[in-house]
Amino acid sequence: MHTPRKEILDPLGLILMLFILANPAQAQSVNFRDVAYDQMFPTAQDEQKAVMLYFHFDGCGACVKMEQTAFVDPTVADWWNEHFVSLDVNTRSTDGAEVNKHYGVQMHPTFLFLDAEGNELHKIAGVYSPEEFLTQGKLVLSESNTLSAFHKKYENGERSGDFLLTYCYMLRDADELDTLRVNDYLRTLQAGDYFKEKNKRFVYEYCLHHFEVYTPYGSAAFAHLLEHREGYDELFAPDQVSTRIVWILNSAIYQAIQRQDRGEFEKLVVLLEPYDTGESYALKEIDNRITGMISERHLVAGAHLAYYEFSADEKTYQKVRKNYLKLIWNDASDLNLFARGTCEHSIVEERLKLALKCANRAVKLSPEFAHLDTQTWLLFTLKDYKKAVRQGEKAIEEAKRTYQDCTETEKLVKQAREKFAKQRTPSNCWC
Q1: pLDDT tens-digit readout, 145-201
Q2: Of 6, 104, 391, 406, which residue is 20 to 30 A from 167 by alpha carbon distance?
Q3: Are the CB atoms for 219 and 249 separated by under 8 Å?
């Protein structure tokens, strides 16, 4: 019987194969130097390269994505290692936190580019494809297209539309965009310019940013969004166009409430009515990440409740409140929101007791952690420390069962125990 001949690997080939297996990505990864931060700049000066600081932390999903894609792309890695001295800065390590004191980075990942003397050249934050990351790296070596170059142009008075549009997107990429620059650009637009797709996209993306209204009610940009929303619906999900409108109207309504401007309030409520559908409004960014939620599902009723809560008309407030609670009495989530809001914003005993009644109802309908937690806080606020401890223990048990953070509840229960112990008498026991 013929036995197949086994292939025999020569010694040199075996050594080479073992080296490749042991070093699979050595030549195809961004090289992060094993040097201290204060040695980075002398190293960069010696090698005549720029510096990149990579701000990250262990467990950051976006950081891991960059590490598994752009960093190990052969084209990116080869070009990067040729032009940069790179240092990874783990902001949750002792050394990394110390480095970040100089820069105050909040978003992860963030990539900060500096020259060999430590002067900031460029900055980007977030996840980039290998191609996008390489493009950003090449910007650093230019003299006129870095973020620092755009900062200087802006400081020197440059306000052309094309410049400001590009500048805003660069600031967005650096997590530095603010309402001033957004509205600088919007002020360059004439009425007809809002119909251009690039400007619809700009208004849609930046009418809200980091939960702040950048194009308020009364602005030309919001007026166009409201009056010509069909054009925005063609480009974006209609529910998200509605969400942005509701968010801005809600913001304007609560400003009118704080001013007790009844005329403005009523006018805004009329605009809000078509969106009062009983649904929540989840805010999605342009990349479809959900970053915010308007949980109030009875927008008009909630607005009227808030208006009279701020007013001196207690009689009308109680009437509006009664009707509102009838509306939400079988909705545990809305009852909890009402109870929690009262707990956080009121010290009036009558209101707190009513809030506790609503919290008790929410727990009866759905004994989840958030509802038990609200109940505990109200009991504590009303100085019923014995019940606060008991309900707090139930809340903690439920939180642990469902893997939720209950640190603050644990602290509250500890405080309740201490306060109850001080007021104990022989008849005041746990039994």
Answers
A1: 999 999 999 999 999 999 999 999 999 999 999 999 999 999 999 999 999 999 999
A2: 104
A3: no
State the Cα–Cα distance between residues 289 and 61, nearest whole angstrom.
14
DSSP code per residue over 364-385: HH---HHHHHHHHHHHHHTT-H
Query: Is the dihedral angle over the CA atoms 190, 192, 197, 200 positive or is it negative?
Result: positive
Q: Would you identify the CATH topology of the domain 37-142?
A: Glutaredoxin (3.40.30)
**Six-digit token string for 15:** 């050594």
Contact 122, 151 (CB under 8 A): no
Q: Does residue 55 sit in helix, strand or coil?
A: strand
Tokens 């969004």 -> residue: 225
Convert the pLDDT of each residue in 204-216 to its tens digit: 999 998 889 999 9
CA 147 to chain centre: 23
Torsion angle of the four alpha carbons 310, 316, 319, 323, in this order, in degrees rounded to the nearest 10? -60
Q: Which residues contact 217 (CB under 8 A, 6 or more apart)?
A: 248, 249, 251, 252, 268
- Sorted by where each begins, the domain ranges of the chain are 37-142, 329-421
Q: How far apart are CA 323 and CA 335, in angstroms?
A: 13
